[in-house]
User: Fold this.
Amino acid sequence: MRKSREDGFIEFAGGLTGHLFRSACLLTSGDTYLAEDLVQETLGRMYLKWGRISQVDNPAAYAQTVLVRTFLTYRRRRSSDERPVAELPDVPVITGSDPLLRLALLQALGQLPPKDRAVVVLRYWEDRSIEETADAMNISSSAVRTRASRALARLRAQLGGSLTELVPAS
Amino acid sequence: MPLENDTDNDTVGTSKNRFENDLGEIMRRTGGTFVADRRALLEAGALRGRRKAARRCATALTAGGLTLAALGTAGVYVTGEVGGDSASVADAAPTWTPSSTPDGPSRNPDGSGGSGQREDPASFMRAHANQMIKLLEISLPVLPKGEFSKQRGTSNMGGPGVADASLVYDDSYGASLVTISARRIDPKDSKIRQLLKCGKTADGSPCTVGPSGEKTEQGHVGGKSSGVKVWKSTRISAEGFLLQAVEYNAASPTGAPTRNEPPLSVLQLAELAARVEGAFTKYGVMNAEAFTSPRPVQNSWEVFETLGNLVPTGQEVVGRGGGGDEGYAIVRDKKTKAKTFLQVRLGHGTPDGGKVITRNEAGRHAGTVGRTAETVTAKGLRVTVTSYNAEYPHKAPVLSTPPFTKAQLSAIATAEVWQSLK
Assistant:
């Protein structure tokens, strides 16, 4: 990579790395080691194609797409190694305290299938539309609706139906 | 946007919108609690990109009919001057320098530093001054909390020579210069091996060779009369690195002594040199994990050394021990002279936003109790600190309650230094 192009990449990625890492933490339901790995892999892929990516309208959104696809690829590879457990670990009783709420959310996300989790992260963390989410995940819009609906139902059941009292008005 | 799209769905009601709103808010709050080491992630990501580019390049070359065998290199030596008080050994040692061929793409393991040269991975190294400084800073947390200043470093972006870093560490007992350095060498070279042998010193300063072959020297700059002590730990890695950690009891080699002895013990100095070794891959580039991942504590004394450094004013450490993920200190109250047991244990846990839990528990002797503070770091390391009212948990109590307050134990458990361990 030529120096000027590398400088451009470093400048772009430097401003995005923190947000990518936070997205990755949500995708991995709090596994920060895996999140770091995903971000590094995403940046590595971006680096390789930076000449073309720098020309697209929204490189940041492109990076998020690369991150989600990298995550899903990783989960596909891992799926044969995973051993589902019959009983899930205890879920903490949710109170108004933020740390417990974060823990409960991460645990609830962790119990969603990876694709459903990716839909939730793209829709409610990234604020992507259904069409944008479908495009990022390379699936149809109706599949996104189905997964979103199913994921929300599970999260509602897990988190207690209403989060109203957990989100004090700021 | 989620809500806009939900309006397309006739069955969606207000409560569902509210749930989704709240979910978005909670996700933003939760996501915001994760803090990345952005520089390390960026460096590691760019490194992966360069490696991918190098692999792609190598594939193209192979397809074009070229073989790696045709890219063989021959090494020649450039011999530096050995000796001098302030110069590091790594600075002066013979260097393994590859000859280069005039054209063709880079064969560096990270795909960079090309300039048409083909490097031998055994003699290549690439380390930026900022990386070396960061490495030095994160490798020093075994020291009590002090201030770092005057950081400087030397980059080596592929050529022969040294990469180094130095800083002045001040723990209020006197400012001290600490340096690290690394350079590629041929580990089988007999001249290089000589650097690990202790010779006679003019002032009879101690010199020892450790079990891993590392040499530690405790000498003076310009003779004993100067009062400036310089301690050096030198090691050679099997991958072909000459590594050195040096410390002074002064802020500069030519300055006046600021304390009796340099801040790191001889063992700690050797450990620092070992960490520099661990930061490099065999290809000569810096290992991203050296910056992004905590160091394992297995087979190290770091846990009890760290605990000893966190004991608050009013207590003094009169004994300590442990190993791996457990450590203890026997602390004596400066006023009452009562000796009690302070223990720390590290384990795995689920990050819970830095919450600290305190509890009391019975010791292994009637009347002996422990007071505990426990927390889990953002990286999932559970830190449990317990103070007993006895010299050991199985002995009779010497105080009615443990001497450490919950606040003091919480402060130890949440100390930032634990974040660098796993």
